[in-house]
């Protein structure tokens, strides 16, 4: 499973990434909605 996580706070992105890694989930992160829309599906 792949997840796109959009969050402006770097520490929040790190915490969520660490939790998803433990669960075996791939995460792509973006610091803004604009950046998230630029990421290819």
In short:
The protein is an alpha+beta fold and 41 residues long.
Describe this structure in words.
The protein is an alpha+beta fold and 41 residues long. Helices cover 46% and strands 24% of the residues. It contains 2 helices and 2 strands. It has helices spanning 10-22, 33-38; strands at residues 2-6, 26-30. A two-stranded parallel sheet has the order 1-2. Helix 1 links the parallel strand 1 and strand 2. It is flat and about 30 Å long. The two termini are 13 Å apart. The mean pLDDT is 95.
Order of helix and strand elements from N to C terminus: EHEH
Number of helices: 2
Kindly state the number of beta strands.
2
Shape: flat
Largest sheet: 2 strands, parallel
Please give the radius of gyration in angstroms: 10 Å
Mean of all residue-level pLDDT scores: 95
Question: What is the percent of helical residues?
Answer: 40-55%
Structural category is alpha+beta
Trace the largest sheet across and list its strands: 1-2
Search tags:
about 40 residues, flat, alpha+beta, 2 helices, two-stranded parallel sheet
Write the layout of secondary structure elements.
Elements: E1 2-6, H1 10-22, E2 26-30, H2 33-38
Parallel strand pairs: 1-2
């Amino acid at each position: 499973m792949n997840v796109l996580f959009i969050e402006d706070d770097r520490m929040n992105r790190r915490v969520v990434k660490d939790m998803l890694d433990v669960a075996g989930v791939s995460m792509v992160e973006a610091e803004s909605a604009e950046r998230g829309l630029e990421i290819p599906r």
